[in-house]
Design goal:
By secondary structure, the chain is mainly α. It has two helices and no strands. The protein has one domain. This is Peptide ABC transporter permease.
Length: 42
């Protein structure tokens, strides 16, 4: 618990966690953002 409190007090750690969260959300919602298969031939 002390480790999490120390991480949340550090501004650099907050930015890193935010960037990691954005990448995770992009990975989860990637099929919705790109609905077309990139391997199909026109």
């Amino acid at each position: 618990m002390i480790v999490f409190q120390r991480l949340l007090n550090d501004n650099g750690a907050k930015w890193a966690l935010a960037i990691i969260a954005v990448y995770i959300l992009l990975g989860v919602f990637a099929p919705i953002v790109t609905p077309y298969d990139p391997n199909t031939v026109n």
